[in-house]
Amino acid sequence: MGSDLADLARLPSPLVELRDDRIERHGVHLQLKRDDLINPEIPGNKWRKLRHNLQAARDQGFTRLLTFGGAYSNHIRATAAAGHHLGLETVGVIRGDEHDSLNESLAYAVERGMTLTYLDRETYRRKTEPAVLTALTRRFGPCYVLPEGGSNGLAVRGTAELVAEITTDFDVICCATGTGGTPAGVAAGLTGPRRALGFAVLKGARFLEDEVRRLQQDADGQVTTNWAVDLDFHFGGYAKRSTALDAFIVDFDDRHGVTLDWVYEAKMLYGIFERAEAGAFAPGTRVVAVLG
Fold first, then answer.
1. Whole-angstrom Cα distance, residue 142 to residue 83?
2. 5-40+154-291 and 44-150, same CATH topology
3. Which of 250, 251, 290 is nearest to 161 (CA)?
4. Where are the domains positioned within the chain?
5. pLDDT per residue over 220-232, tens digit each?
6. Minimum mean pLDDT range among 55-59, 66-70, 97-101
7. CA 219, 262, 248, 278 torsion: positive or negative?
8. How confident is the model over 177-209, as pLDDT tens digits?
9. Which terminus, N or C, of the chain has the lesser number of Cβ atoms within 10 Å?
10. Terminal-to-terminal C-alpha distance of the chain
11. Which residues pair with residue 290 across a beta bridge?
12. Are 211 and 179 in contact (CB under 8 A)?
């Protein structure tokens, strides 16, 4: 049934030092954890969050995955790609109305064999309710259901494994977050005084603090306090951007040869640089930023 799970990932992902005077002049040492290079179709935290879920789906005998996301969801893309390579059918439940033409993300998902269906925003907000899920599984048949963004207890276990791959000393590990799964897992994987810092890519995302706690509880039955969520660098909301963010992306590519994803990665790194400029990191702080 398709490829083996192990064949889909290049692990461990590289850890590279980033030399940039804008952050070094504040005494901050920054490294990039290049999870975006794990798999070009299933990058970074998407692979780590899907890994144990895909194995669970196989172990439970499912041949179809069903999951949720917005029209620009990287999770939708990654699930479609994973299903394609593993020989699993995929269904993407998309928030909002169907459009005559698909954007690049949804077109890619369809190319990878995903069936798309749509829920109006009111119904989408109730997507975890039994009545909504029952209607979907009645329509599409038995499915292994992945939550929006792929974040659940198994996903937290997968993202926690990232920490063990970092072989250099660090104080803070940063990640972008839309559903809380990555900071929940990274924080759970830390030891000692090290901390995790998530950068919310959604506006009004204070709910993520509760989500991180819930996800950690689901994964391991315990909640840590070694993390925080920064709510200030969403640039207007999910899949929203600004001229300042676009300029940062172009400049970062020019300086370092790394093209940042504007929905997630760019917001996080912009936030790291701004926090350094504001003195939020003490001189000597060693930061790891997770890409992907």
1. 15
2. yes
3. 290
4. 5-40+154-291, 44-150
5. 999 999 999 999 9
6. 97-101
7. negative
8. 999 999 999 999 999 999 999 999 999 999 999
9. N
10. 27
11. 33
12. yes
Q: b or e along 146-181 (b: 16 or more beta carbons within 10 Å of the residue's beta carbon)?
A: bbbbbbbbbbbbbbbbbbeebeeebbbbbbbbbbbb
* Spatial CA neighbour of 80 closest among 116, 117, 45: 116
User: What is the bridge-based pairing of β-strands 89-95 and 195-200?
Assistant: unpaired
Of the pLDDT bands very low, low, confident and very high (cuts 50, 70, 90), residue 100 is confident
- Decide: 242 and 236 in contact? Cβ < 8 Å: yes
Query: What kind of fold does domain 5-40+154-291 have according to CATH?
Result: Rossmann fold (3.40.50)
Q: What is the pLDDT of residues 153-186, one digit of tens each?
A: 999 999 999 999 999 999 999 999 999 999 999 9
Q: Is the pLDDT of residue 1 over 50?
A: no
**pTM of the full structure:** 0.91
- 152: pLDDT strictly greater than 50: yes
CA angle 251, 256, 257 (to 5 degrees): 95
CATH number given to 44-150: 3.40.50.1100
